[in-house]
Design a protein that fits this description.
Elements lengths: L1 H5 L22 H11 L1 H19 L5 H12 L2 H4 L5 H22 L5 H6 L17 H26 L2 H11 L5
Length: 181
């Protein structure tokens, strides 16, 4: 991560000096977890290829809730991306995809989504303890389902774009201390 940005031609050098901080010692539970995460990079990269295909297809199925539901279910089966409960990013992203999946299911049911169903999708309809003013009509309620699905598909595309962008990954590593390589 650092060498690619601070010494772009490092691969053409015969030797490269790197500094490994003393804090990077094993055994340490946190460092083992980080090594396991790093070791999972090849499977995440392969599954990101699958997610790229899913995101591309999903973009053209925004009105096909049954087809989109299947694509989102397929995405959630990408275990190395959405199945790591110990990885905060994975948990957060999974919740968004699950909301998109649930929005597809509600749209397929054909009814008008209730306040509770919309709130489960992440919509804050009114301040806590108050009713929306004005009340949401049927058309607006259905449009919130559509917006949830569109946001989910946008997230899938963004996830793939960010994952394969080394400069964004480097910035994320420098700011958050998280990396995926």
């Amino acid at each position: 991560m650092v060498l690619n940005h601070e010494k772009p031609n490092w691969r053409s050098q015969e030797y490269v000096r790197i500094h490994i901080p003393l804090a990077n010692r094993l055994p340490d539970a946190e460092n083992y977890a980080r090594l396991r995460h790093i070791a999972g990079h090849p499977s995440r990269a392969a599954e990101m290829g699958q997610l790229s295909r899913i995101a591309h297809e999903a973009e053209y199925r925004l009105e096909d809730h049954a087809g989109l539901r299947q694509l989102l279910a397929d995405a959630l089966r990408l275990e190395s991306i959405y199945g790591n409960e110990a990885w905060e990013w994975s948990r957060d992203q999974r919740r968004i995809v699950e909301s998109g999946l649930r929005a597809c299911e509600l749209a397929l049911e054909g009814g008008v989504p209730s306040d509770e169903e919309l709130q489960q999708l992440g919509w804050e309809l009114a301040p806590p303890g108050k009713k929306p003013n004005p009340p949401l009509d049927e058309q607006r309620r259905r449009s919130l389902l559509t917006q949830t699905v569109q946001q989910c598909v946008g997230l899938l595309k963004t996830t793939v774009s960010i994952y394969f962008d080394d400069s964004i990954a480097h910035d994320h590593w420098m700011i958050e201390g998280e990396h995926d390589f």
